[in-house]
Write a structure and sequence with these properties.
The complex is a heterodimer. Chain A is built from 24 helices and 11 strands. By secondary structure, chain A is of the alpha/beta class. In chain B, helix 2 packs antiparallel against helix 10. The longest helix of chain B has 14 residues. Classes of the chains: A alpha/beta, B alpha/beta. At the A-B interface, helix 5, helix 6, helix 14 and helix 17 of A face helix 1 and helix 9 of B.
């Protein structure tokens, strides 16, 4: 019997997938992040380990290159722009610190080591970036809503973007041509890449989602094509493709809300396939013979001091921004881990011939060190910070309850409002068709129509169906199951419970808003009444701001000069009871407007929106809108 | 600063030539059409000659000197005192025991050279052709394992004999390294073409003696040339017009390997 030594793609992929599955679990036993396991697993099967995959094999490195692009796309897509918006001042200030200090130290280290300027700049940028590897650890300790955590998350947008810009400049400068032509190409290239990603890509993808992408696999493939297009456009200008991929993720961030099904798919394929293959391919470079050389260890020491020291100085500097000592500790713990962005920049440096493999090995030591230190830092810092309990943002998970038989136009208006309500939080809309158990006819046709309507307004989720003994029961049960943060229901009367909204709101786990009218949505008008309970008014203010993106016209409902309701108006009205204001109701009946009423008690348990805060936030948004429009 | 610069690893490695100011390059023969033109004392061009000059420029060296070292000595690790070997060497495990290789600078998978007008669309067709190959080469092994032709294979001492048989229609096809095939096809004036390639991981890389401190610098330099188009320009100039585009258009014979 003659047995062949295994070779070829089947064997190589088998090894890869065994490493992807087993390695993170093995290192988890000793409390190390899975990324460390993947690196070590790659080393084990690679040319410097057991040599099960030889050095001249091209498939894994080429797939790893695709994984790198995917990783950077995911990095941009996952960034929480809502956090950035809420804490932009502190995020910007701290972002400058946590980027600037390690950048300066890294460049200084490169210059002192005699490295050329491009290599020193690239070194600085890779030390200055960070990956939020410990974010989940922090959230698990109840510190997610802490301002320091939100600041660190927001700052990540700046550090990663700046690091990518430096990388783009360095990689672009390696091309042929005079310094002037290189600089011009770089500037033009960045304008085209960033402008194309931020302006053109969302429009194209949104159009494709509406016309082509009602099926989830199609949507997923469209996203992949989008970031690859951005990567290719970057490479046209000699800018590394990962810059295009990152900005594509940033630009499409709002179209793919965190927690949506599409995001789950993107994360699934990323975490199951593309990203682990990239990390394993990096593990191939890990070479103990190079690692133990004194020069490599010395360089690793220099990198650790520059990076960890720089991040520590930046975190200490955050105290000047008003953060406490423990909060500064959390900032350090969150911004220390070096992983995805660092690996990406190092790989580019290797490919450009700016870094030799000893530098890559030294960076891998830095990564391993940072991944060991940062969880320890989380434990120490979190011990001195109390958990923060904060309610979910109003628009994080909006349930749109559609009863069977609701006219299409009204359903569309309600779903459109739901999408607008989620926009500020990057939340998701969960449409559900509610059907009474006594209803005999099939709901398939209506479900299909509703799904088309939902897709056309940009909703990613499939329309679910709930059958219950009443519309109110069905709505409440679904809201509980979906952990809804806001419930939108149409103004209908259920024959068994009377006013639907009243029945829902009495036991709802989240605020309820009543919607009526099929009109177009163009302008948001808030009909406030200072005599009403504060929780009701607060929700009305908050919802109006979200729907109108800060552009809201305030009208005192009792004012003599209140202007008449016009076509395209969305009236947001806190109501004193379960009846709707007469003037508003008449306008809606005439199909001139859409009415959103917040009946009491509609605050729901623990909603936590205070009226003063909501009004102040609206004034801030109005000022920035005015400034933008002059 | 100078002291600090010498104790840490250089970003892209440091290159110290055996002879100051001169890059000494070893190859097993000059001339090799497309790779080394002219003579060892006075090379006049070629892909690897161009690569040698690019390396010299990157390392700040003013001259290139070529030495011929028999192939057997090269793959045994004896590079004849040269700084780097640019001799179409394919990294193998055995050779890695005595040489340090850079990343590959040229793909060298097996290629099927035929008379113009001969199509080789699949293994079925390939099996029925009369083949010529260099005796004892890796291509002879690839032919036997991946095609297993029905007619007996003609094993020749070198590529020139095989090419002559192909032109005389004594054989229908010959299997050789892709760059060699492209050069010969380009030089044939249209009489010969590359019909297909076979799957393979064989590539050509630069080599330095095992443990040489120059290994990192050579490796970083080749990576640089891969990314900035230097190698592409050299290939297009010396290995056939639009070499890089041309080889991407050659079909890959699916042999299951």
């Amino acid at each position: 019997m003659h047995l062949e030594v295994p070779t070829g793609p089947a064997w190589e992929f088998l090894l890869l997938f065994v490493v992807v599955v087993a390695a993170p679990r093995i290192v988890d036993l000793i409390k190390l992040p899975g990324l460390v396991g993947l690196l070590l697993g790659g080393f084990a099967i690679g040319p410097h380990g057991l040599n099960l995959i030889t050095a001249n094999q091209a498939t894994v490195p080429e797939l790893g290159q695709l994984g790198l692009l995917y990783l950077m796309f995911l990095a941009g897509l996952e960034l929480d722009l809502a956090q950035l918006g809420a804490y932009r001042r502190s995020a910007l200030s701290f972002g400058m610190l946590t980027f600037g200090v390690p950048m300066v130290l890294g460049v200084a280290a490169g210059v002192l080591l005699g490295w050329p300027v491009p290599a020193s700049l690239l070194l600085g940028s890779l030390l200055a970036s960070h990956t939020l590897v410990t974010y989940q650890l922090v959230k698990d300790r109840g510190l997610g809503p802490d301002p320091a955590v939100a600041t660190a998350v927001g700052a990540t947008v700046f550090t990663d973007t700046l690091a990518l810009i430096v990388l783009a400049a360095v990689s672009g400068s390696q091309g042929d041509g005079t310094p002037v032509s290189i600089a011009l190409q770089l500037v033009v290239g960045m304008i085209v890449v960033v402008g194309g990603a931020v302006v053109v890509l969302p429009l194209v993808v949104r159009w494709c989602f509406r016309r082509l992408g009602s099926e989830q696999p199609t949507r997923y493939v469209l996203l992949i094509a989008a970031f690859l297009a951005a990567a290719v456009s970057a490479e046209l200008f000699d800018i590394d493709g990962i810059v295009g991929a990152f900005f594509a993720g940033l630009a499409l961030n709002r179209l793919v809300p965190n927690g949506s099904r599409l995001m789950h798919r993107v994360e699934f394929f990323g975490s199951a396939l593309f990203v682990p293959i990239f990390i394993v391919s990096i593990g191939f470079i890990l070479d103990p013979a190079v690692l133990v050389e004194p020069a490599t260890l010395l360089l690793a020491g220099v990198l650790i001091i520059a990076c960890i020291g720089g991040k520590a100085i930046a975190a200490w500097g955050a105290r000047l921004l008003g953060f406490s000592g423990p909060q500064a500790g959390v900032l350090f713990a969150l911004t220390t881990p070096q992983a995805a962005a660092t690996l990406a920049a190092t790989t580019v440096g290797l490919q450009l011939g700016l870094f030799q493999t000893a530098v890559v090995n030294a960076v891998l030591v830095l990564i391993l060190f940072s991944l060991i230190v940062s969880p320890i830092a989380v434990r120490l810092a979190a011990a001195n910070l109390p958990p923060v309990v904060a309610p979910s943002p109003l628009g994080s998970r909006v349930l749109a309850a559609i009863p069977l038989g609701l006219p299409r136009a009204e359903a569309r208006a309600l779903l459109r409002l739901a999408v607008l309500a989620t926009r500020a939080d990057g939340g998701s809309v969960h449409p559900v068709l509610i059907r009474h158990e006594s209803h005999a006819d099939s709901h398939e046709t209506e479900l299909k129509v509703l799904q088309e309507v939902a897709t056309s307004v940009g909703i990613d989720e499939d329309v679910a169906v709930t059958v219950d003994r009443s519309l109110a029961h069905g709505t409440v049960h679904t809201a509980v199951a979906r952990n809804a943060s806001l419930i939108l229901v149409p103004d209908r009367t259920d024959r068994t419970t009377g006013s639907w909204a009243e029945a829902v709101a009495s036991v709802a786990p989240a605020p309820v808003a009543l919607v009526r009218g099929p009109g177009r949505i163009r302008r948001v008008v808030l009909l406030d009444d200072t005599a009403l309970p504060e929780p009701t008014r607060a929700i009305a203010h908050e919802l109006a701001a979200r729907i109108g993106a800060g552009d809201v016209e305030d009208i005192d409902a009792d004012a003599d000069d209140a202007r008449p309701v016009a076509d395209g108006d969305v009236l947001v009205v806190p109501t004193p009871d379960w009846t709707l204001p007469e003037t508003a109701a008449r306008a809606v009946d005439a199909a001139a407007a859409v009415l959103v009423a917040i009946p009491p008690p509609a605050a729901g348990p623990g909603i936590g929106i205070d009226l003063a805060g909501a009004m102040q936030a609206r004034r801030r948004r109005r000022r920035s809108t005015t400034a933008r429009t002059g | 600063c100078g002291r600090a610069a010498s104790i840490g690893p250089a970003a892209a490695g440091r290159f110290t030539p055996a002879t100051p100011g001169v890059l000494t390059v070893a190859t097993y023969a000059v001339p090799i059409t497309g790779f080394w033109e002219g003579s060892a004392d006075a090379p006049t061009g070629g892909f690897e000659d161009g690569l040698a000059h690019a390396l010299a420029q990157r390392f700040g060296l003013g001259a290139v000197q070529v030495v011929e070292v028999p192939f057997g000595r090269l793959i045994a690790g004896d590079v004849g005192g040269a700084d780097v070997v640019l001799g179409g060497l394919t990294p193998t495990e055995q050779r890695r025991q005595v040489l340090d290789f850079s990343v590959p600078y040229l793909a060298s998978r097996p290629a099927v050279l035929v008379r113009a007008g001969t199509a080789v669309p699949d293994v079925y067709t390939a099996k029925r052709l009369r083949w010529a190959v260099t005796a004892g080469s890796t291509n002879a092994t690839a032919l036997a394992e991946q095609i297993a032709p029905d007619p007996p294979v003609t094993a020749n001492p070198n590529l020139a004999v095989s090419e002559a048989q192909l032109r005389a229609a004594a054989v229908d096809a010959m299997l050789l390294d892709l760059p060699d095939a492209m050069v010969r096809a380009a030089a044939s004036g249209g009489a010969l073409t590359v019909a297909a390639t076979l799957p393979g991981d064989d590539d050509i890389a630069a080599a330095v003696p095992r443990g040489s401190p120059n290994a990192a610098a050579v490796d970083a330099a080749i990576r640089r040339f891969l990314s900035d188009g230097t190698l592409r320009a050299l290939a297009d100039r010396w290995l056939g017009r639009d070499y890089t585009s041309a080889i991407s258009a050659i079909p890959l014979l699916r042999t299951g390997a």
